[in-house]
Amino acid sequence: DVKVTQSSRYLVKRTGEKVFLECVQDMDHENMFWYRQDPGLGLRLIYFSYDVKMKEKGDIPEGYSVSREKKERFSLILESASTNQTSMYLCASSFGGGSGNTIYFGEGSWLTVV
Amino acid sequence: GQSLEQPSEVTAVEGAIVQINCTYQTSGFYGLSWYQQHDGGAPTFLSYNGLDGLEETGRFSSFLSRSDSYGYLLLQELQMKDSASYFCASDNYGQNFVFGPGTRLSVLP
Questions:
Q1: In A, which residues are within 8 Å of B55 by CB distance?
Q2: Distance from CA of B98 to the nearest CA of A (A)
């Protein structure tokens, strides 16, 4: 089975702190994604990566950065956490290229910024 | 850019059939996927339409009409365990997936 593992299930951070959310996939997928999920807004794409060291902005990249130094690992970084970044963050991966590829999601990381 | 619209909520009874619609406005559209998410869980893949027409997978079917920029997910013989949120997602050649806001399905006994 494909496994996408997010390092932290629940986090509480203070405003202004630097936050790292880590994600690892074990299927040698080219593509990796970070989504944010809020009630009524669905899943919004923050960043995605289609190869090591490559990244593309999604719909809401402001306040976030990402790092992909190894194919299996994709990190989301909040340089200075703010209360409006309190949300559930979902990491996902898929094979690259072609259409109809299934996206596999991690279990999510619930971040609360106080 | 890409945007998708879905109804926010649908309610049906056990054993019934329900249809969840999705309309999209996209550039670079390749196909439409459907995902299911139970409360507290991760979204999981249900179905994909790369071509116009109906795709059937057990109790679930999905339909796509590119000329109408429209698709739907059809759930038959509803069960209580089908209560979940359902998301349509447009596929930009497998490199960028944009999700709709989700439809919360409640199945009543």
A1: none
A2: 7
For residue range B9-36, what is the model confidence (pLDDT) as tens digits?
A: 999 999 999 999 999 997 778 899 999 9
Centre a 10 Å sphere on the Cβ of residue A4 and count the other Cβ atoms it contains: 24
| Closest-CA residue to A103 (of A95, B73, A45) | A95
Contacts of B44 in chain A (CB under 8 A): 105
Q: Which chain B residues contact residue A93 at CB under 8 A?
A: none
Residues of chain A falling short of pLDDT 50:
none
Give the residue carrying structure tokens 């970044």: A85
Alpha-carbon gap, residue B18 to A112, rounded angstroms: 36
Q: Give the separation between CA B107 and CA B87, rounded to whole angstroms.
A: 17
- pLDDT at residue B109 greater than cutoff 90: yes
Chain B residue closest to A110 (CA)?
A: B40
